[in-house]
Amino acid sequence: MENNNTPVREIKPSLIPCRLGAHRYEIYADELMKTVNGTIVGRNIITRCSICGKIKSNPIKIITANEFI
Questions:
Q1: C-alpha to C-alpha distance for 65 and 53, rounded to whole angstroms
Q2: Residues 6+ apart with CB under 8 A from 44
Q3: DSSP 4
Q4: Which residues are within 8 A (CB) of 54 and not within 5 positions of it... i.e. 6 or more apart?
Q5: Side-chain half-sphere CA neighbours of 14 within 13 A
Q6: Is the pTM of this model over 0.85?
Q7: pLDDT tens digit string along 21-48?
Q8: How remote is the C-alpha of 50 from its chain's centroid?
Q9: Running DSSP on this structure, what letter comes out for residue 62?
């Protein structure tokens, strides 16, 4: 058999929660969503994981009085 001396990639202990999907998100930006004519239709909250840097976007629609849910 051959001697395989390839280095094993180690996972840093701080990245283990991120590997399991438990990111530690912080709010990175908060922007308004507008239509072409400038009407505000919602908000877009952009968050970033403080450990690995993953960016996530959460659009939130604003319901007006004449819309149905």
A1: 38
A2: 30, 31, 32, 33, 57, 58, 59, 60
A3: -
A4: 18, 23, 48
A5: 6
A6: no
A7: 788 888 899 998 888 888 888 899 999 9
A8: 11
A9: P
Closest to 55 in 3D by CA, of 17, 19, 29: 29
- For the chain, the domains span 25-61
Q: What number of other Cβ atoms are within 10 A of residue 7's Cβ?
A: 5
In this structure, are residues 59 and 44 in contact, taking their beta carbons and an 8 Å threshold? yes
User: What is the full DSSP assignment across 17-51?
Assistant: HHHTT---EEEEEEEEEE-TT--EEEEEEEEEETT
Q: Is 46 exposed, middle or buried (0-12, 13-18, 19+ CB in 10 A)?
A: middle
| Token couple for 12 | 């840093």
Length of the chain counted residue by residue: 69
